[in-house]
Amino acid sequence: MKTVSFTLNGIVQHWEVADGETLLSSLRRQGFFGVKFGGCENGECGACTVLLDGNPVNSCSLLTVQVEGRNIQTIEGMGEHPDQGWKKTAGLHPIQKALVESGAIQCGYCTPAFALAAKALLEKNPYPSESEVREAIAGILCRCTGYLKPVQAILKAASVLRGEKGEEGDVEEDSGLPLPMNWPAGTDGQPSTGAGSDIPQTVTLTRRKVFMPLMVETPEIRQKGLSRVGKPELKVDAIKLVQGKPAFAADIEKRGMLIAKVLHSPVAHARIKHIDLSKARALPGVAAVLCYKDIPRVVYSTAGQSDPIPGPLDTFSLDSKVRFVGDRVAFVAAETEEIAEQALKLIEVEYEPLPAILDARDAMKTDAPIIHDEPEYVNFADSNPHKNLAAQIHIDIGDVEKGFKEADRIYEAEYVVPKVQQAHIEPHVVVTYWDEDDRLVIRTSTQVPFHVRRILAPVLGLPVKRIRVIKPRIGGGFGGKQEVLIEDVAAHLTIATGRPVIYEYTREEEFIAARSRHPMRIRMKTGVKLDGTITANEMRVLSDTGAYGCHGLTVTGNTGHKSMALYVGDGPYRKSPNIRFYADVVYTNTPPAGAYRGYGVPQGFWPVERHMERISRDLGLDPIAFRLKNAIREGELHPFSTAWSEGREPRPEIIQTVGLEECVRQGKALIGWDQKFGNPEWHRVEGKPHLRRGIGVALVMQGTAIPYLDMGGASIKMNDDGSFNLLVGATDLGTGSDTVLAQMAAEVLGVPVEDILVYSSDTDFTPFDKGAYASSTTYISGAAVVKAAEEVAEKIKKRAARMIKERYSEIEVTPEDILLEDRKAMAPGGQFVTLAEVALNALHHTDQEQIMGIGSYYSPVSPPPFAAQFAEVTVDVETGQVTVDRLVMAVDSGVIVNPVTASGQIEGGMTQALGYAVCEEMVYDKEGRAREKDLVDYHIFRANEMPQLETVFIQTYEPSHPFGVKAVAEIPMDGVAPAVGNAVFDACGADIFENPITPERLWRALKAKQSFTGN
Ligand code: FES
Ligand code: FES
């Protein structure tokens, strides 16, 4: 140990540290939890940024002994809440304020790093350009925002710090809104932003001097006169996140907490012939080492889904067989990370290797090895472990063969989509401990706290009631945390030792032992008449679920359910479409796939939208007109609604709102489609003959929740001062769902959002919610909140009417007459009592009661959001390099509750989808070992690599929801890859069947220039 003296946030410190301890570890050990761990070993994420003598550095790459005599700044020293009771502080730093006000904070895991990097930049360069800002934060990865709002925030903070007027806090709620429905084309007046353009990416928004997306609304929405719903309210958790408060799962101190590590399999398929833990157990500082012999053998599914799990039960916490490189072999708990790692090396394992399946096409061959030969395996639906089949789907709608016979042309092709990672910046992390009542507490970064409790109870041998799951803030999930992935590891070790245990994935573990998007091979066959009428459409899928079947059925089902529902055909086919969707979901000896934002739908739209583009061009039809001719319309039956519902009973559903045509009109106008598409001049890049511009489109639809299944609950109680506690089981992953739920409650109760104190979620205190997935929180949990708020409002009105009558004895007023507004309960004549008076009256004075309400909601329908996604690219035909210059998305997500958080969802989603389009891919060698094990090899977009992002919301009013909302979170994942693929085709005629469009794939396609003509 050594004593290191340095200045931390202006205070001289003398810390005892070990020689090899990183600054990140020392800071977090001392409670500076604003410094985040991104799981990396190579300093690639920047979440751990601190300022060293004013310069941003990764604290994970620096030893604490190296900071002797230096000056360190962390987020804790930057600014704080201005009002702390009788003590007032200088408040938040202008950079922190700007991050909050501009909606730059989603999960907030990267926020302290952005704030510090911005501080370093602005202290040196008060007048940064946009590209200088992007360079300054390029070392910090954000998986949520798409960087647009953080960049806007830093530019805004620069302006404030320069003392310029009219910038601070000037979010003009209505400026420029709404756009007229006949909003004209090409409003930016710029024909191009092509390669080499230096048009700033924030131009669309900064020219308006507001951080609002473009919005189109129907008169119906205006007439509602909503005061909180539809407004850019600040995120309810933004202030704590921007201060780096200990809000995340790992930000907790527990006396005697052990560190857990897992021994992962180095082989793809093997039996464990012999395992010896004795040397590891004997190592001083080791508290427990467990293998499959030490814990009960309970089969379960790790998929965080409602009961019964719609998939096979095929997983054990630990097993005598390993099924992929990265599978679990043993668990260790030790006093320190170093001891735990040493112990892993002392575990002796002898494997009996088995032949492995590494290509899904081999899984169902007759001589294929059987991956799941365990007798405990529990089938679901059509799974068959003897054929390595985790699930099978056969859906025939109408008469597909007749439809093909009636076609003038049949088009067939095979498309391939890759395995990709959610890559949330906060790794999976869990802390477990026994509480004073001998109940097991699981504090975990999860999207599904209630499913974690239910699924783990039998695995741990505990009744549900003896488990409490706490979900703190989550540093991004994107479906990766809709999995009961690591909670059992820490829980088994706490049971074994009686001590608190923390288990946190490294980035490498995220790649080798977490979940991913299902890779698929998809064969399309489409019958079309020469006028462009689709007569029959068929999709056949081979989906690779990896070694375990978690989410295999439901993800793959959605691949067809959403993408193949969009095009029903025209004329008589519109009334009676012919659609076929067949899928085999097979096991392989690769890391299991699972849920990833979009949940199978992005896999479906790559082939569907590439196929539609190619058909329309072959028939000489306008690609957009062809699509709209065949696309589903308002009032029509969702064709899959009578055929399939995630393994449950399907029921017919009429689609009530379709804003697709307006999405197309507005999106075309924004990107300048009519000036660019088919214009040879625009496609050329002056003076650069090797470059070609292209423009592409994709139309997409998603779903909103799972009908007759997804359920959310909410409860609201009134406090003495007229504020309210809103308790929801819903899980805010950084999406802003806590905020939009608070907005809905505030709307009903007539109070500002700051009067709604949201708590989500804790299985002991909050009502049940199935969790954050299927784009359902605003819709399902929102409807539950509205019900709870209406119950509270009714009680308030009843009491208020009585109080008003007592106070103003001359008037007659009934509860129905009362309006809740501005923290008051008002009679039609203007007489009122304040909500604080109502609360005091209820709690202390007359006929006392706790004013409370509860609500729960499930939906009989799943109203689809729709979108038109546009992309502009520049292709280098010599190297195969694709540069995406601009992405425009026009989205019908129903009423937008919060334009800032919703546009943040679209920007972040488009950015993730952009990686799917051009660079993200997980590849394995012939032994089944991962090629990508960090965020260097697996490239996600950085701030200085981004195209221009633009969003326009086409608001429809979905009648099945009290505020007319539909889902927004997943749809941005669906259209970017095919729109980019179609733009590449437009640019250079290269037909790409497999994404991502890497330079090599494009170069090969250019060489092949495959022809595609129907027969
Ligand atoms: S760069 Fe330090 S944790 Fe990622
Ligand atoms: S807000 Fe940046 S990683 Fe989530």
Task: Tell me about this structure.
This protein has about 1000 residues and is α+β, with helices and mostly antiparallel strands. The chain is about 25% helix and about 20% strand. The strands form 8 sheets. The chain has a 7-stranded mixed β-sheet, with helices on both faces. Helix 3 (about 110-125) crosses helix 5. The structure holds FE2/S2 (inorganic) cluster (2 copies). One FE2/S2 (inorganic) cluster binds near residues 106, 107 and 425.
Distance between the termini: 77 Å
Bound molecules: FE2/S2 (inorganic) cluster
Regions with little confidence, pLDDT below 50 for 5+ residues? 167-210
Average pLDDT figure:
92
* Strand percent estimate: 15-25%
For this entry, give a set of tags.
binds FE2/S2 (inorganic) cluster, 34 strands, globular, seven-stranded mixed beta sheet, five-stranded mixed beta sheet, 27 helices, 1015 residues, alpha+beta
Provide a short characterization of the protein structure.
The protein is of the alpha+beta class. It has 27 helices and 34 strands.
